[in-house]
Design brief:
There is one protein chain. The chain is of the alpha/beta class. The protein is built from 11 helices and 16 strands. It has one domain: Ribonuclease Z/Hydroxyacylglutathione hydrolase-like (Metallo-beta-lactamase, Chain A, 4-Layer Sandwich), CATH 3.60.15.10. Helix 2 links the parallel strand 3 and strand 4. The longest helix is centred in the C-terminal third of the chain and has 12 residues.
């Protein structure tokens, strides 16, 4: 059984600088700590990990989809934690070309100094595949202002596949990368009717979900317009249009991936996981 923990559900410049929604990314862990992966550690990933009792020194791999700060800002401190304060080479860093080497638009967002700390560094290019902690990982296409942006697809034994699609507009052929999923996590920055080139709106999410037909969808990475509009309302619109159960993530949300996909509910402080999952 694996667990997804949303350390943040905010995205874009203004959600980042105001922290109206946290920007800590997503942690993927197993009960036996054989899997402990942090995906897109934006600003606050280190602090929010500690707040939620997720020891950053137990991280075994860090995935970074592209070089923008709301996805990559805390990668370096998490690398230092993963490498036990830099005292030994440990863990795996998986990152796009722009993150590691930069491109014509973006400079690299992880220094060469920090890239030397993990035991292994994998440059994530579209179409490539590899294994991390027993999970089969495929690198998927995304269309964003950072041209090297990539998505990640994970094949989990006894569960099936789920995928994380970062900032991206809709593109033809999404099913070549994201079909056959039990769960898709989409970075939906803006609500319906508010397009922004290179980013996903509710309308883009509807097109993607209609094309790839996952068992369930979760939307996250909300910008200020989406936050004010109400992510839950947009998730309901997506579900109504596509017929695919769709949830809006919230800060601290946990999702269990087993024979079923179990989405945790909001509970007050101090409540245990039994209460969280109902």
């Amino acid at each position: 059984m694996l667990e997804l923990i949303f350390l943040g559900t905010g995205g874009g410049r203004f959600a980042t600088i105001t922290q109206k929604r946290r920007t800590g990314g997503i942690r993927l862990i197993s009960e036996q700590d054989k899997v402990n992966i942090h995906i897109d550690p934006g600003p606050g990933a280190l602090i929010y990990s500690l707040e939620m009792g997720l020891d950053p020194q137990k991280i075994r791999a860090i995935f970074v989809s592209h070089s923008h700060i709301d996805h990559a800002n805390d990668a370096e401190p998490l690398i230092e934690a993963m490498s036990e304060g830099t005292v030994r080479k440990r863990g795996i860093l998986v990152a796009s070309k722009s993150v590691l080497r930069g491109n014509d638009i973006c400079e690299s967002s992880i220094s060469k100094y920090h890239q030397a700390m993990p035991e292994k560094v994998i440059e994530a290019s579209v179409g490539s595949s590899f294994e991390v902690d027993g999970l089969e990982v495929s690198v998927c296409r995304a269309v964003h202002s950072d041209p090297d942006t990539v998505g990640f697809r994970f094949n989990v034994k006894d569960f099936g596949s789920f995928a994380y699609m970062p900032d991206s507009e809709y593109f033809s052929g999404a099913s070549n990368f994201y079909s056959g999923l039990r769960l898709i996590i989409l970075s939906v920055l803006r609500p319906s009717g508010q397009p922004w080139e290179g980013h996903m709106t509710t309308d883009d999410a509807i097109k993607i979900i209609e094309e790839v037909r996952p068992e369930m969808a979760i939307i996250t990475h909300f910008g200020m317009q989406m936050i004010y509009k109400g992510p839950e309302r947009e998730a309901e619109l997506i579900e109504k249009k596509t017929g695919v159960p769709t949830k809006a993530a919230f800060d601290g949300m946990r999702v269990l991936l087993s024979k079923e996909i179990i989405v945790g509910r909001r509970v007050g402080k101090g409540r245990d996981l039994t209460s969280f999952f109902g």
